[in-house]
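Quick log. Single chain, no ligands specified.
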Amino acid sequence: MGDPRLTIEDNVVISQESFVTTGSHDIYGTMDLVIEPVTIRRGAWITTRCIVLQGVEVGENAVVTPGSVVNRSLPPDGIYGGNPARFVRGRWRDES
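-> predicted structure:
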């Protein structure tokens, strides 16, 4: 069935009305429950009204912009936005 854990490391911010789920259903077959872990690494910020779906890792110091849907893992130190969330730019001013 998979690993049902939700791991939230130190100094993470999950803002208002965001939704994090480790479960869904097998829509292509039996409709059985499918559970996969979610990991949100140290220093990440999930801003307001985001959706983080099962089986993803949000990298260290990553920022997810408001209203975004995270359906795949995001590397560290980036800003991501949209539906689905995509790389926008580096987190730090000296990156592009």
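The chain has a mean pLDDT of 94.
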